[in-house]
Q: What sequence folds into this?
């Protein structure tokens, strides 16, 4: 062996690159990466399933019938008027089921029918055409009282009313639908960001725990600055996620192309699709670096996988709360809730990605990104400093300090 | 403190008064070490004596609470990480990595370009009889083979200083022998090798200089022969006559074991004694002067308790 060994050591970034390259390659060619790529399919599948079931339940709930129990003549007139109106007005007129044709003076117990819960009867009309009585839960009373009045009035006149034809003109969107679309984009962006960041932060944590289990950390600590190990691990996972996003983006684009659809059909985000994607990528990187640095620091302090899980749980739960806060901020733009969400580092990327979908202004993003960069620098510096101090901390445990064992790490001194 | 390196002008490692405390435990208490360049230096002590902590401080993995260290002329050992190779006691490799890649990665950590590291990794493995396992994943290697791979990773960047923490631990007798040869060859090429061990025989065979460490302190650091000289050589005498005037020439602390007379070599040397024995008609059948072994020196320097601890920690297969 002969090598002109140069004095010194690898620079921070060079060392981080060496660590990141190893981690990136190892993860890319691992089985876990296949699951990582398939990862987004699971929440999408669950969401689709939940959406489908929800829509079905909603549709079934909306398809409830209105029962009628009047004297025979009134009942027939009511049904005839209902059918006439339904032909013109459409689904706003509910289906009507004849419960009973009453004899004069006969009383019908509508409450009993409804509380019996039989069939799909959601409301019952009794009384006469001149004085109809509607029995139903509160929500349905408000929903159908006007309709029942309209049907009764039409039935009383003895002929179907004729309504003028309304000419229709279609537009691609309206202010209301645009807002709704942007809101959905904002929520979708937040959910995607949240899932990705949590997935990656967990992966970087597992990676570190595995490394400690493999006893490699001491080799790394002896050769390169621990800050570089910290940075390298963060960057490797960021690289993996960018690779994953590229794969998912390509698949998504391919699916859109196959279905002859384009993004222009969807509600345009406030900042436009290209800028929205760019901002999304930046906010993803910021959010990941912030949470990843916390998770890595936790990983450095915990001696076992179980300890890691125990310590990471509160952070994960807190992050869920932060996500809901960010989600709430979407509907309260311009309020203190949104500003608090932007200022708090861990929620800032989520709130801002939503703002990108909802609002056209770009300057708030510049400010927010600058703030997030400051936070990332602080988090990474503090995290790597703790990482350096804790990950190689060694020495025998004493009984009195056993309670703090979670915060002590490394192999015991054996020699 | 016996440094005994007055004839050595250049030191690879010079540590003074290193102290490290973990909570209430004083792991290392004022360690002084001077490692001459190009030498093989052993840190000898039982488990828990402070060997690993001392090595970690010398490498800059952990900082001492007090004291100074100078490694290859630098105050901060991490500034010259490229010149150092380190094999930790707790061996660690990425299980999914191929063996030569693992060596290359360890070289890359010390600044060796990856392609060069791969090439060297393959060659090193072939040179050390592991050519058949070059492309094998670490998880598919035996423990001993993985240990050799890690050792080769420690050397791949051609370091000036090699630090090995309990390098013989876990190796079978054959591989221990190979490792001893490798350590000697490194020293022959001018590389400084410092290793910790709790097996006296390794230190005795390999080292010119040692530090004996027990309870976090270093009661002796210096040349092995100086350590041995702490105990006078033993004279073993066999005579045909059992009594006679020659008996008066034997030192008062002479013991009779079988047909032999055993006593420490007198300070005046062997010649006056030999003359008195001949003149007194002792009928000398045999006379040998046995120099004290390192084990005896260890007992004398570190104490019986440390020696007992050392013996307890030494598995029979390691006591080669």
A:
């Amino acid at each position: 062996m002969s090598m002109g060994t140069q004095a010194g050591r690898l620079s921070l970034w060079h060392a981080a690159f060496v660590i990141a390259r190893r981690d990136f390659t190892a993860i890319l060619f691992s089985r876990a990466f296949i699951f990582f790529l398939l990862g987004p399919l699971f929440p999408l599948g669950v969401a689709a399933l939940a959406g489908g079931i929800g829509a079905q339940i909603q549709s079934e709930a909306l398809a409830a019938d209105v029962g009628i129990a009047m004297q025979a003549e009134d009942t027939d007139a009511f049904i005839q008027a209902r059918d006439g109106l339904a032909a013109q007005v459409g689904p706003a007129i509910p289906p009507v089921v004849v419960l009973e044709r009453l004899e004069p003076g006969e009383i019908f117990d509508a409450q009993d029918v409804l509380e019996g819960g039989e069939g799909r009867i959601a409301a019952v009309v009794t009384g006469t055409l001149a004085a109809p009585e509607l029995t139903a839960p509160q929500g349905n009373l408000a929903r159908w009282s006007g309709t029942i009045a309209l049907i009764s009035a039409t039935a009383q006149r003895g002929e179907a009313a004729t309504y003028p034809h309304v000419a229709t003109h279609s537009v691609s969107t309206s202010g209301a639908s645009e807002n709704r679309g942007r809101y959905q984009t904002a929520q979708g962006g937040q959910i995607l960001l949240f899932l990705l960041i949590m997935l990656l932060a967990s992966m970087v944590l597992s990676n570190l725990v595995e490394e400690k289990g493999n006893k490699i950390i001491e080799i790394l600590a002896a050769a390169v600055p621990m800050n570089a190990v910290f940075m390298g691990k963060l960057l490797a996972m960021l690289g993996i996620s960018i690779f994953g996003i590229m794969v998912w983006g390509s698949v998504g684009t391919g699916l859109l192309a196959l279905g002859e659809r384009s993004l222009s059909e969807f509600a345009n985000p406030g900042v436009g699709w290209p800028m929205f994607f760019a901002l999304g990528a930046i906010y993803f990187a910021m959010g990941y670096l912030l949470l990843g640095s916390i998770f890595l620091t936790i990983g450095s302090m915990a001696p076992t996988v179980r300890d890691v899980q125990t310590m990471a749980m509160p952070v994960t739960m807190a992050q869920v709360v932060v996500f809901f806060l960010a989600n709430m901020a979407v509907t309260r733009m311009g309020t203190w809730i949104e500003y608090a969400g932007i200022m708090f580092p861990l929620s800032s990327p989520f709130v801002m990605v939503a703002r990108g979908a909802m609002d056209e202004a770009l300057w708030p993003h510049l400010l927010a990104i600058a703030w997030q960069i400051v936070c990332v620098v602080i988090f990474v510096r503090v995290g790597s400093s703790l990482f350096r101090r804790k990950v190689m901390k060694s020495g025998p445990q004493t009984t009195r300090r056993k309670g703090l064992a979670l915060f002590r790490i490394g192999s015991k001194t054996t020699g | 403190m016996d440094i005994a390196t007055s004839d050595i002008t250049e030191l690879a490692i010079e540590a003074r008064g290193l102290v490290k405390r973990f909570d209430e435990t004083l792991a290392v208490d004022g360690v002084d070490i001077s490692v001459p360049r190009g030498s093989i230096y052993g840190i000898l002590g039982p488990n828990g004596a402070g060997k690993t902590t001392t090595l970690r401080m010398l490498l800059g993995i952990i900082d001492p609470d007090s004291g100074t260290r100078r490694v290859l002329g630098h105050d901060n050992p991490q500034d010259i990480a490229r010149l150092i190779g380190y094999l930790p006691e707790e061996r660690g490799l990425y299980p999914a990595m191929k063996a030569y890649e693992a060596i290359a990665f360890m070289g890359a950590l010390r600044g060796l370009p990856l392609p060069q590291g791969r090439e060297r990794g393959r060659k090193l493995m072939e040179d050390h009889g592991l050519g058949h396992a070059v492309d094998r994943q670490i998880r598919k290697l035996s423990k001993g083979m993985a240990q050799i791979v890690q050792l080769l990773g420690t050397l791949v960047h051609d370091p000036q200083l090699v630090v090995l923490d309990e390098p013989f631990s876990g190796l079978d007798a054959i591989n221990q022998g190979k490792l001893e040869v490798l350590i000697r060859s490194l020293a022959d090429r001018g590389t400084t090798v410092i290793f910790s061990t709790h097996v006296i025989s390794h230190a005795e065979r390999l080292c010119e200089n040692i530090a004996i460490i027990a309870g976090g302190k270093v009661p002796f650091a210096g040349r092995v022969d100086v350590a041995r000289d702490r105990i006078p050589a033993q004279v073993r005498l066999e005579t045909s006559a059992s009594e006679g005037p020659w008996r008066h020439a034997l030192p008062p602390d002479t013991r009779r074991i079988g047909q032999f007379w055993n006593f420490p070599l007198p300070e005046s040397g062997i010649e006056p004694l030999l003359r008195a024995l001949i003149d007194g008609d002792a009928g000398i059948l045999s006379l040998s002067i046995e120099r004290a072994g390192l084990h005896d020196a260890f007992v004398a320097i570190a104490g019986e308790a440390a020696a007992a601890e050392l013996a307890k920690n030494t598995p029979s297969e390691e006591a080669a």
Observations:
- Chain B touches chain A through 56 residues (CB under 8 Å).
